[in-house]
Design goal:
Lipase_panc; lipid metabolism; Lipoxygenase-1; Rossmann fold; 25 strands; alpha+beta; 502 residues; lipoprotein lipase activity; PLAT/LH2_dom_sf; lipid degradation; 9-stranded antiparallel beta sheet
Length: 502
Amino acid sequence: MACNYQICTKENRNLFMPCELLSTEGYNKCDKRMVVGMWIIAFYLLGTVAGDEVCYPRLGCFSNDPPWSGIPGRLLTGLPESPEEMNISFSLYTRETGNNSQVISAINSSTIQNSHFSPHRRTSFIIHGFSSTGKKGWVVEMCLLLLEVENMNCIAVDWKEGAKGTYVCAVNNIRVLGAEVAYFIKTLQKLFRYSPREIHLIGHSLGAHTAGETGRRIRGIRRITGLDPAGPYFEGTPPEVRLDPTDANFVDVIHSNAAHFPATGFGMYNTTGHLDFYPNGGTLMPGCNDLLLEMKRTDFEALIADTTIFGSCHHSRSHEFYFKSILYPTGFIGYPCETYEDFKSGDCFPCPKQGCPMMGHHADRFPYKLKRVNQKYFLNTAAEPPFASWRQKVFIKLSGVKKMRGDINLIFHDTEGNTKEYEIASGVLSGDKVYTKYLDVEIDPKKTKKVEFLWNKTIFTLLWARMGAEAVNIIHGEDGRWSTFCGRGTVTYGVPQLLTPC
């Protein structure tokens, strides 16, 4: 069914008849001749619509009064659809179910009692966003991976029917979706005395704000992770409308497609959790090439308000980063900074004495995560999976050269056979100068097998010229630890020089 738009007046809310609804399928006029029985059917099938609110059994009423609409940045129309129209479902994955799932329902609580749900394990709810599904794809893959590392209950929330219309309609729908997830949690409390402290909500885009709506209704949820919370109609709005730090005991957020001038994105730029991570600055992700981001902001707002937006690579990176952070926790260290420019210049390097949090799955291990809200952390990632990188500051002192043109590089090798090469400097090279650069190395320092020095000449460099690395010092950003390597003699261009610990 199409998203319904309320146009009835408050004056007729007490009449025993269905209120007038406007949908993309046409008009259903209010008719005083309709019998009371039709009103009762409408109540249970569609909810009662009265004036500027709609009510659904079990979940309560939803108004379009401010701040839900009619405020700057949130000039929405319409009211949310019913759970039945959205076809909301919950699929349980456990180690007992393997790659399959069990459909469970709070309305029919026996399906939970007869399932493999265990009240003795923690539970994660995975909630997809606009124009997506919880029946396949990243949501299911996330559950299966979480089960590999922890014996838990993982519940994939599907609301595909409510997420596939216009974006505005989906924005309205997450209020009912959040109420439905909250009702499910209340059912777990009644059945098992299950504590919200055992629950982790993980939501992408509109799913992140759905988690926030759930947390607003159920206090004491252990953790909410917002994966690039949707920006349009949420950026700059009051806390009750969007995800905010009060929605759970701990709220961590990954911003991967923030609408930060001059770029246009699907996500929020402002902080909205206890720990807010901005990988690669939080707006444009390496390895992505979305033409949509080149549009003017006015064009984008018109498009997102009126049509279906397909997934953005930058927007999806947030859940891809979270997925890989489960396997590579130290490869996503966030550094406390005010801006991405400060991070790139090295002003926030290395980590302070209290350490740095790990973006993604292991963010809750950070001992100072609740010190205050809206803590900003920056990091860089690789352009390709597994996206992990380790920030280092490199110092190179050359040997065998007074002045020469060319470029100098370091090559890192790990125990698994992976190799990555990074340029340190190019141009006029001098033996009396120390060359410094911040690197985001895609080789785990704990798995580094060897480091090599390599230089390349320009067309103006003599063929018999030689150069070497006298000393290479590396500061590891995670803990400030130093590693020192030395080279023996010099090598000709294009020939790697093995560096050994001094």
